[in-house]
Amino acid sequence: MRRTLLVGTCLTITLTISGCQDSATAPTAARVAPAASRVLQSELNADTVLDLAELQLPSSARIADQDVINPRDYVCPASTDVTAWYRSQILDFRTKEPALYTVLVTNLLADLIPTYEALLFQTTDTPQSFGYNGEYTRILQKAERDVKRFWDIPSADIQLIGLHGTVLLDVERTAQTYRTLFPTLSPATALAIAQTVRNAVLQSQTLNGGNHPIFSFNAFAASGGGIPDKIIMGDGVLAGFDAVGLGDVAPQAAYAHEFAHQIQFENGYFDDPFATAGSAAERTRYTELMADAYAAYYLTHKRGGTLNKKRVAQFLQVYYQLGDCAFTSSGHHGTPNQRLAAAQLGFDLADQAQKQGHIMSSEQFHALFVAAYPQIIAPDAP
After folding, report:
1. How many domains does the chain have?
2. pLDDT score at 354
3. Between β-strands 227-234 and 219-224, what pairing exists: parallel, antiparallel or unpaired?
């Protein structure tokens, strides 16, 4: 496949410099008190604080947000069940163990490390698992096989990779990731940071050895920058959907959505007019809503996911749950109603097919989505 892009697409927020850190829950300028620091940091200076601005990725990210979407035009809830669950988990950790939170999240940015470790270093050369206890491994592996058979792009080289917070217990892998992201760190300092992170995770009474959504509430597709084509699925986001009763449908829906991004990479849809004009929020919204529609088409097609109408209603909620109202953010995925509308388009196209066994080409589906896109994003506020 072509490798010209490196794009990470969090289910809730794009994989940019801030990863999936929730700005509503992360303090901006706190440091751990020296007394608490000494418990965790033997070789590391108590004042060590990494700067997000110094984090270097394999390829540059464009951030050019402009406030061009009028928030008053759209219906947008303050929160949804999945995002509320995620924030509650972060708040629980931050409230119960503020010193550990500050060391790990504020000072050492450890919540970002599992995502970048999976992105930069994980491959299918080693066995992969999905879910805190591997409970989603079989269903995602089946989804991978089925989706690849369904769509017409070359996909044998797309790797399905698990994202696990438990990688933070591996000092060498954690240190390697820190040194890649922060090239100015010396090997000794990177090792000291990695050891500190391991000690903090093991000391925590709430992080469950790294099996916590703060480290893995993410799923994204990547291509380019010298990195193999990947779909990366985080344990934390799967746990979140399970917590709100969607654990049996969300894995397939999430994988189908991320595979749609690989279709976009392969077919050049990031060069579409809607993907290159307007604000960063508008450009991202276009590709994300298109991915929702592709996923819905596969999931409800008689030769795809074959979900019945009850299942359709459930998986449509997946997309609704992950909508956002970040109208000035380069990570804007569309409002919940827009994501629901995009998914509904995919369902309708599959349901209305004259030949039930016929599968549209990815290019044919793209043309229909582009035609429907203005209506999908039309203002919906009273």
Report:
1. 1
2. 58
3. antiparallel
- Asked if residue 222 belongs to a domain, the reply is yes
pTM of the model: 0.85
In a domain, 348, yes or no: yes
The type of residue at 59 is S
Q: Confirm whether 239 is domain-assigned.
A: yes
Q: Which domain holds residue 329?
A: 34-376
Q: What does each C-alpha distance from 255 to 218, 220, 260, 365 come to in angstroms?
A: 12, 9, 9, 18
Residue 6 located in a structural domain: no
Single out the residue of 261, 289, 274 nearest to residue 153, CA to CA: 261
pLDDT score of 237 = 94
**In order along the chain (382 residues), what is the average pLDDT of each group of 10 residues?**
37 30 31 33 59 70 39 74 92 96 95 95 96 97 97 97 98 97 94 96 97 95 88 96 92 94 95 93 92 94 86 77 73 86 93 78 97 95 84
